[in-house]
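Review box. Two proteins, two foldings.
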Amino acid sequence: MATSIAGAVLVGATVASVVADASGWVSVPRAIQAALVLVTLFVLPVAWVGVHAVWVLRGRAELFVAAAQHPRRRPSDRQLVSHLRNEHPLTPLWWMVSVLGGLGTLCLGVALPFALADGAVLDGALLGAGLAVSLAALSRAVPGIRRAARQGSEDERRRAELWSLPTAVERRLMIPLLGAGDGAHLGA
């Protein structure tokens, strides 16, 4: 909840600064606007999904520990739906990092030659550093997606061994945290 509130405040501040500067009410420096927009577009989604993934991972670990201690007690349907989906909790985070890394690589890769052709050395260095970070994020995200898919399958198998579930709960567990309703991710 705190992450959602902080995100809403950040988005509100970003929109307010852009609108206030565009309408001429308050002069907001371009560096502050650029920083707010970049944080809102790139950092905020990853932070929000990351916090949600940590919460789900902690709940998932607690449910499996409780199952080891009390094998006959089944968690509530709400606990199962909140913490034990058919996909691993880190899958949406890895997809978000891969999408943002791909977009960053594309945008910065196109902008870098223009900056270097104009002789803007500082801009070229900043764009090159951003391109390197985007490529590094992309190279980490692709194996992370595969690893999370394997872990999700393992979690699903463990859950099936521990608890039999009603059909309605099983259908709700199949809805991905990030993606389309047919079980496929938007980036797939």
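Next protein.
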Amino acid sequence: MKILNWLLVIVGICGLIGVRILEEKLFYDPFLGYFHEANKNIGFPVFEWGKLILGYVFRFFLNLLFSCLIIQGLFKNKQWTLQGAVMMIIVFAIALPIYLYCIGNQFEIGYLFSFYMRRFVIQPLIILLIIPMFYYRKQVMMREE
């Protein structure tokens, strides 16, 4: 059974890496180049709202799937995996509208603020908080037993 758990973790990590490597091919995101240049003086990209939002939602669901595989493989607890998924959905539900507002105002709210909001939309950063939190929770539960 441990092999299956480690396989889930490896597939999850490889999936997250794959999403990152194939981002230009898989997702519609004209802001990839814009932020890659790290030059706020270049022209604001032309884009289609519908395709952009669908691209972000699709990317989020792939990241969510692979993140849940990692959580399940590490902790072997479906309830915790569900809780992790809910936390990631909440962060995405907060970050996406803020980032879309930044886009609507052509990043007038601040280039760096927009850059980091975008990170919460396109990258599964919350997993870096969830894993230590669940690990701590597991340690506390083991001490109580």
